[in-house]
């Protein structure tokens, strides 16, 4: 069943790309399909998103750059 779900996730990504959505939107659509199909609890998803942004903040502070510079990968 998991292989079928992954196939559906890839199909969602491909369909969004066919409809000329940007790649980041297609990947977000795939992530949302994954969350819905695999019944991942929303609390776990939000926790992981918050941890990601906290790690970005700590990394930006460590390198003494802004978050924008870190995202654009203009590190020294």
The percentage of residues in β strands lies in: under 5%
The residue ranges in which pLDDT falls below 50 over 5 or more consecutive positions are none
Helical fraction equals over 70%
Based on secondary structure, the structural category is mainly alpha
Mean pLDDT: 88
Query: H/E series, N to C?
Result: HHHH
Shape: flat
| Rg on CA atoms, Å | 16 Å
Q: Compute the number of strand runs.
A: 0
How many helices in DSSP terms? 4
Q: Kindly report how far apart the N and C termini lie.
A: 46 Å
Major sheet attributes: none
Please provide a written account of the structure:
- The protein has 76 residues and is mostly helical.
- It has helices at 2-18, 23-37, 42-63, 67-71.
- Helix 1 (2-18) packs antiparallel against helix 2.
